[in-house]
Write a structure and sequence with these properties.
The protein is built from ten helices and eight strands. The chain is of the alpha/beta class. The chain has one domain: Alpha/Beta hydrolase fold, catalytic domain (Rossmann fold), CATH 3.40.50. The chain has an eight-stranded mixed sheet with strand order 1-2-4-3-5-6-7-8, sandwiched between helices. The longest helix is centred in the last third of the chain and has 20 residues. It starts with a helix and ends with a helix.
Amino acid sequence: MSQAASLLSQGGHAFLSGADSCRLWVRSLPGQGEPIIYLHGIADWGQSLLPLAMEMGYPALIPDLRGHGFSQRQASYRVLDYAADIVALLDALGQRVTLYGHSLGALVSLVCARTRPQLVRHLILEDPPLFHLSASIDSRPSLVAAFSATRQLLAYQDDPHQLLCALLAAEPQRDPAALARRAEACRRYDPTIWDTALDNRLCEGLPKPHSWWQQPACPCICFAADPERNPALQTSDFPIVYALHPQAQIHTIHGSGHSIHGSYRQQLIEILKPALDQAAQIKSG
């Protein structure tokens, strides 16, 4: 069995990236069409994107980023470091894919598409925190507060019951099942991921949006959360999207918070599937 076939066979696989010899845990799902690689956000894990991947119906690879979930912990957690692992995964797969990135995963997807344009067919960004590319995190006090509140949950990382109780107390309006899934993710990440994010080192070494690439090599669909729900991608950030990709399509999902793929998954699918299916028909034609 080839490495690509092995990666796409259903189940979970350990993948050793060339970057720092980091061992990633990668879930895979069968399906029809070209594969989609789904990349989660900070302090999350690939499991959270599994329902979306299953309903989309395409072959899927869903890794836990370094320091998250079942993947290996490392010394460095810049976007460039996360991206080096995924570029190694792209090289091992050796075929064109769609990259779907949520939050931090969207930043990682952008770097991968810039590094391996010949291997990325589509770029899909879910509520990407693009301000990181040109501004300090201190420019978003609400985000600093949210990160700090999540970081405080580390006190309960070894106590699943207390962790879930703390989440329920902090977000009583949220679905308990969703909070239970979030608690599982919180128990499995490296606490030092926050050092890089809160010390403004996350996007260290990346170019400014206007010099990202000379010409985007693939279409881009960007999803923004509701402007009233404290999104990572604010309306004022839309010019950054167009600086990165002048032909990008931006869809605002009204009512949704940052994790659009949760409660508003169907709205994502209704937009994505026709776009990807149409592109596949053009390719085959």
